[in-house]
Design brief:
Layout (H helix, E strand, L loop, with lengths): L2 E6 L6 H12 L3 E3 H11 L2 H12 L5 H12 L8 E4 L5 H14 L2 E9 L2 H9 L1 E4 L5 E3 L18 E2 L6 H15 L1 H8 L3 E5 L4 H11 L4
Parallel strand pairs: 1-3, 1-4, 2-3, 4-8
Antiparallel strand pairs: 5-6, 5-7
Helix pairs in contact: 2-3, 4-5
The structure holds adenosine monophosphate (AMP).
Adenosine monophosphate binds next to helix 2 and helix 3.
């Protein structure tokens, strides 16, 4: 049976980076719900128009929107051999819908990797984060700057600060995370699926801790 891996953690825990690396190692797609939503907003789709205001304020987009987006994405052919998802599920309602969906598509929940960091670390990472408008690559002005200044090393695209990485929005995202998403840690622990890893270390160290906790190293 094909497996699904979920990454859970506060904003800036590094879940996107780790999910991408695991996706390359296991050779299965990486689905980031935030990226799907940002793409829908950029393209001005009906769903993107509905999501935009919530995202700009740092609030969660309503469950029915994210659930239908996730369903459509996980049902595509490239996910047939399993997939990695970050940023979904983010509420208990999404978790229930996700578990139903896995059953109906014939997937097993491989593991939920919970990357934990302190609020201080998150704020310092987020306020310096810069993203590429064209390819989505992520940099940090101090810890991981682009060699080309305000252009992307990989594709030359323009780097920008996500509106929701500005300080007042970061605070809202954190309180939403604590209220809506943190309860999932307990939920997946009770299912015996949670693998917790500290996200305070370097990318490589977090990765080896994660691989050994998944028994993949
Ligand atoms: P991210 O890139 O994962 O930090 O997500 C950016 C924003 O997209 C979040 O602050 C939410 O507004 C929205 N979003 C992403 N995933 C979800 C989800 N599973 N449920 C609701 N809103 C989401």
């Amino acid at each position: 049976m094909s497996g699904a891996y979920v990454f859970l953690g506060p904003p800036a825990s590094g879940k996107g980076t780790q999910a991408k690396q695991l996706s390359e190692k296991l050779n299965i797609p990486h689905v980031a719900l935030g990226d799907l939503l940002r793409d829908a907003v950029r393209r001005g789709t009906e769903l993107g128009k509905q999501a935009k205001g919530f995202m700009e304020k740092g609030k969660l987009v309503p469950d029915d929107i994210t659930i239908s987006l996730a369903k459509e994405r996980f049902s595509r052919d490239d996910c047939k051999g399993g997939f990695i998802v970050d940023g979904f599920p983010r509420t208990l309602k999404q978790a229930e819908a996700f578990e139903e969906l896995l059953k109906s598509l014939g997937f097993e929940l491989g593991a939920v990797i919970y990357i934990n960091i302190s609020m201080e670390t998150a704020v310092s990472r987020l306020s310096g984060r810069r993203s590429c408008k064209r390819c989505g690559a992520v940099y940090h002005v101090t810890f991981n700057p682009s060699k080309k200044g305000d252009r992307c090393d990989r594709c030359g695209g323009e780097l920008y600060q996500r509106h929701d990485d500005e300080e007042d929005v970061i605070k809202t995202r954190f309180s939403v995370y604590e209220k809506e998403t943190l309860p999932l840690v307990k939920h997946f622990t009770s299912l015996g699926k949670l693998a917790e890893v500290s996200g305070e270390e370097s990318v490589d160290k977090v990765q080896s801790a994660m691989l050994s906790s998944l028994k993949l190293s």
